[in-house]
Amino acid sequence: MPDPRTALRVPELPESVADATVVALHGKPGDSVRRDELLVELETDKVVLEVPAPFDGKLVEFSVEEGAVVEADTVLGYLTAASETEGQDDADDEIPERPAKAEAPAPAPAPERAAEAPPTPSPAVRRLLGEHGLRAEDIEGTGQDGRLTKQDVERFLAARANAEKAPEPVPAPAERKPAPDVRDLAPAGAREEERVPMTRLRARIAERLLEAKQTTAMLTTFNEVDLSEVMALRARHRDAFEKRHGVRLGFMGFFVSACAQALRRFPMVNAALDGHEIVYHHYSDIGIAVSSPRGLVVPVLRDAGQRSLAEIEQTIRSFAERARDNRLDLDDLRGGTFTITNGGVFGSLLSTPILNPPQSAILGMHAIQDRPVARGGEVVIRPMMYLALSYDHRLIDGADAVRFLVTVKESLEDPARLLLDL
Q: Would 174 be classed as within a structural domain?
């Protein structure tokens, strides 16, 4: 008799990815599942892959456990279709362990109930729920169709913390006791430690950073840029830009445009070493470092030099949203000839970014601060940012690196140069 079950398999893995780790199994044997409902999350060293249910039916079993390493086409579990599960429900009632006494069959759940079930939360929300030991059904979702959002979970946690927090009574002055000798104090609670395995992405990041430090002659040059003109331009056109293009006019678009222009003038900064050969790229695919729940990822903005400011901002926003929800594809992360990283969004004032091999250079942006600077013989306050360019000195001479950074600085201090290609 043919097996009525359908195997749930690992999808075809992206090129250069040999295997994946099972990081989450959703549901348990016997659960009803809906088409496209998330059942398994697989983590590679670059992206998270989601394996959904191929049809409405019932989950029979999982064939793997969380933490297992699987390859393409590996069986993850088995499902039965909805029509098959209906016929099996009656057979389940005849299992020998059940009482011989005839009982009225339990009423089948109304079809509307499944239809009214809230959508499956995103991977980022499920991870947040797991970190705090919460259940999605205990929190009211405010997203589309009742979907639970990250903001819903954060509000729930804040409300719970406020409810649990009670003010500590302050003793009256007469009741205060002298502070005990520190040598008499007992340890303030258990000194616990926890060991957890590195995620595949974190392990890959560690491997790549160590490789960059050990295999390149990395050097960093610094400069600072006055962003008065960029900020004035944004203030004048922010509302009209957002109304026309549907995206906020940020700073990153100006930096990407300035770097793309500078890369055309200094092709060595856009090149890469391959053995004893230099590979010159006659295009600028600029990676934008983005923070995600799994760690730092670098999606690549293709042909940055051919894109308008609006297209750059729209693509960057898409990267940020998909990175937050672990929805970046491997193609988003593949390649790249140059990278920009912005530690300023976290408050960094100055840093030396590490190269992203095989690329030969990376630009580090930092926090904008009002600082006194000399202009026309007078001291004025201007919004200043430190820039850092790390580069592989085996390929790029110091003079070229400095001139590249000066070109970026000049384009940002006078944005009209970007339009006029000066």
A: no
- Residues 156 and 272 reside in one and the same domain: no
CA 155 to CA 138: how far, in whole Å? Answer: 13
Same domain, yes or no: 8 and 151? no
pTM: 0.63
Here the tokens at position 257 are 């445009």
Strands 290-292 and 295-297: antiparallel
* Distance from C-alpha of 202 to C-alpha of 235, rounded to nearest angstrom: 39
Residue 402 lies in a domain: yes
Q: Write 27-35 long-range contacts (CB < 8 A, 24+).
A: 27/59, 28/59, 29/59, 29/60, 29/61, 29/62, 30/58, 30/59, 31/58, 31/59, 32/56, 32/57, 32/58, 32/59, 32/85, 32/114, 33/57, 33/58, 33/59, 33/79, 34/114, 34/117
The helix/strand/coil state of 380 is strand
How far is residue 37's CA from residue 35's CA, in Å, rounded to a whole number? 6
Q: Is residue 135 domain-shared with residue 76, that is, in the same domain?
A: no
Looking at residue 93, its pLDDT comes to 44
Are 10 and 48 part of one and the same domain? yes
Alpha helices in 175-308 (DSSP H): 200-215, 228-245, 252-265
Q: Are residues 145 and 237 in the same domain?
A: no
Mean pLDDT per 10-residue interval, the chain, length 422 residues: 75 74 84 84 77 86 84 86 55 45 47 53 72 78 71 78 59 54 60 82 82 90 95 92 90 94 95 92 92 82 91 92 83 89 90 92 95 92 96 94 96 88 74
Q: Provide the token pair at 248.
A: 């906020």
393 in catalytic set: yes
Q: What phi and psi, each to the nearest 5 degrees, are found at residue 92? A: -65, -25
Q: Comparing C-alpha atoms, which of 305, 334, 329 is closest to residue 319?
A: 329
Tokens 């750059």 correspond to what residue?
312
What is the C-alpha separation between 257 and 419, in angstroms, rounded? 10
Q: Do 366 and 399 fall within a single domain?
A: yes
Q: Do both 78 and 134 map to the same domain?
A: no
Please tell me the total count of domains within the chain. Answer: 3
Can you give the residue range of the structural domain that contains 398? 218-420
Among candidate residues 62, 58, 101, the one with its CA nearest the CA of residue 80 = 58
* Single-letter code of the amino acid located at 197: P
Q: pLDDT value at position 149?
A: 76
- Is residue 73 part of the annotated active site? The answer reads no
Q: Are residues 21 and 136 in the same domain?
A: no
Catalytic position from the list 19, 56, 393, 400: 393
DSSP 96-151: TTS-SS--PPPPPPPHHHHHHSPPPPPHHHHHHHHHTT--GGGS---SGGG---HH
